[in-house]
Structure formats: C-alpha cells, structure tokens
Amino acid sequence: MKKNGFSRDFMLVVIGQIISLFGNAVVRFALPLHLLNISQSPTLYGMVSALAFLPLLIMSPLGGVIADRVNKRNIMVVLDFSTAGIILLFLLLSGQVNLVALILVALILLYSISGLYQPSVQASMPFLVPEEKLVQANAVINTVSSLAGLLGPVLGGIFYSMKGIHVVLAISMVCFFLSAVMEIFIRIPFTKRETDMGAFRIIFGDLKESVHFIAKSQKVIGKVTVIIAFVNLFISSLLIIGLPVLCTQVLEFQKADPNQMYGYLSGIMAFGGIAGGISAGILGGKIKIGDTWKLIVAVALLMFPMGGVLYSSAPDMGKYLVLAAGAFLIMLCATLFTVQTMSFVQMKTPGHLIGKVISWVMAIATCSQPLGQAVYGVVFEQARGLEWAIFMTAGIASIFVGLYLRKIWISEGILDSGTEAVSGAYK
C-alpha cells in the first residue's frame, strides 16, 4: 500500500472499470434507445427494459457467492471477455433474426453478467485499501462509474445518430476486450476456502448464511436496502423511462437530433454523479450516515420543479434545461447517498461475507426497478400530456421514503448519538 495514495492493484481496478464501464454505458444507452426509435412504443420500451433487468436480481446473489469463493480478478477477466463475445454475436446475428427478440436476449445476458460482475468489484475494495480509505475508494469507483456514464451516452448518442447501432456496439465490444486484458494484471488477495460439500450445498449454505446476517444479525442493513428499493421504484425507474420518452416523443428540438439531446442529458446526469463522487471523496468521513435521509428528501423535492416546468408553457428547450439541471442535482445527491450506504454496509460486514451481503443488497435494492420501468412505460404511453403529474407524484412518494429512513436511523440510535460519520466504529 502506498503511504499517501492507493495501491497499484486498486489503480488497475479503477482503470479497468473506466474502460469496462464506458463500454457498458454505451451499450446500455444504445440498445434500449434503438428499440424505442424503431417501435415508438413507451410500453414496449418499458417492458423490455424490465424483463432485461430481472436476471440482475437473480444473478447478483450468485455473484456474491462466487466472489467469496473464487479469485475476484479471474471473475472480472472472464466476464469482460464474455461480454465482448456476446456483443460480437449480436452484431453477427443482427438483420437475421427478430430485432426486438435479439435486443431482449442481449440485454438479458448483459444484465446477468453485470449481476455476477459487480459483487466482485465491491467485495474487492476492503482487500485493496485500508479501512480508513474505504469511503474514498468507494467514492473513486462511483466517480469512475459516473465518468463512464458521462462519456458513454454523449459519445454513444453522437455515433448512434451519425453511424448507427452497429458502430456503437463495435466500440463497446473493444472496450470490454481491453478491460479484460487490463484486469489480467490485477492482484487481489485470495485464500481458497476448503470444503467437501457439493456446489449446490455450498451455494445454498452461503446464501443462507448471508440472509441470516442481514435478517437477524444486522437488521439495519436490510432496512436500508428496502429504502434503496423504494428510491429505485419511484425515482430511478422514472428517469430511466421518462427522460428518453420526453426527449424523443414529447419535447421538440428545432435543429437538434432527439437522440443526441437524450445522450447529452444522460451525460449531464453522469456529470452529476461525478460531482457527487468527488464531493464524497473530499468530505470522506465528515459526511454523517444519519444525514442520508436528507439526501432522499432533496431528490424528492427536485421532482417538483421538473414537473412544474413540464406543466408550464415554457419553450421546449427551456423545459429541457430545467430537466437537465434537476437530473444533475438528483445524481449528485444519489451518489453521495450510495457512497455512504455502501461504505456503511462494507464496514458492518465481516470479510468472508462481504461479497454475498453486497450481492443481496444489490439484488433487493434493484428488485423494484423492473416493476417501476414496466409501470412507467405504460403510464407514459397512456397519460400523454400529464407527464408533469407523474413527476409530482414520484416526488411526494419519495418524501415519505426519506422520512422513513430518518425513523430507521432514530430507532438505531444513530441520530440520537449525534449522527456519527461513517467509520470503523460501525463494524
């Protein structure tokens, strides 16, 4: 470990993440948008997005078991090579099979891999950085994710408008291949756990142990995870479905391509994530875990000016700018919230359970997102002209979610004890 910085292996993880997440951002931006453009149906867009997301919920717990049983570096390498292969297969089959089915299968496979992949990245952090740098390390990873999310949609939107879907996918395929090559050189401490049990008994036993930890030993982790699920239901799903629909079917841009405008909007959101990650890294332990409920309330309140401008008679470009500003601030607050809660979970969890517990947190927290995407797809198609009311309703619901999180922190004695900062004292 470097005295005044991060280790070589952590930096290699960061570089690999930059390349891999950029490719991920490009392909997750391009494929659903391509489907919306060719179908012009928000309902179909929402349903396909929801169905594609379901494997992430199933694979995340399995990914946690694998992350605690297999060398995390090897998992990253194999999965990035596999992703590159899936995209290559999509390009070869494009034009020969039904496009909607091909996009759905491709997204299902990509989300399945993501469910296996992300627990390994998150579970490797405590092995690569000391505890006092854990919040900063998570902030770096979140900033990298936001940076990739900034460049991916912006460049993806430009290339998609100019060159089409095939060029965009070819770029992302190269990114995954390069990331896999980079990750080969990472060294993550790993001790093989000896067992004479079969694979099924190992998986079942590990999952049972992690569920018991969340449900019995550290109930607060389960409660916070449910809070994240509700935020994903009301806010994340709304942005994922609503913003591309608004850009491509509601707002009118006189001289700009709607796909590029949505790409820019996605980039602005990612820039908000970068700002949030940088803020979390700078503030570090000064941010108090008990204050995270205020971040959710802040996100909820941002829904009201976004809904208000959609209701107004403002020019469409003015509406777009207000939506962009709101999305930027939402992502800033959301990233601060994510860094704090993920660090909280990591510090509360023993090393041999980190991968499995984080995978359950990710699975439970995101289980509401497919439901939200499917519902919002139908709502945006059936309630044309009432988009403002959708944002307002989501804001009201999210205020109650934030207040409930405050109640959780009070019941845990965190607010009563002075709202301590995230630190090793939680472990």
UniProtKB/TrEMBL annotation:
Its main location: membrane. Signal peptide: none annotated. Residues 9-413 form the Major facilitator superfamily (MFS) profile domain. Keywords: Cell membrane, Membrane, Transmembrane, Transmembrane helix, Transport. InterPro entries: MFS, MFS_dom, MFS_trans_sf. CDD domains: MFS_MefA_like. SUPFAM superfamilies: MFS general substrate transporter (SSF103473). The keyword Glycoprotein does not apply. The chain crosses the membrane at residues 12-31, 43-67, 74-93, 99-118, 139-159, 165-186, 220-241, 261-283, 295-314, 320-345, 357-376, 388-405. It is found in: Cell membrane. The keyword Membrane applies. Pfam families: MFS_1. It is a multi-pass membrane protein. It comes from the Bacteria. This is MFS transporter. It comes from Blautia hominis.
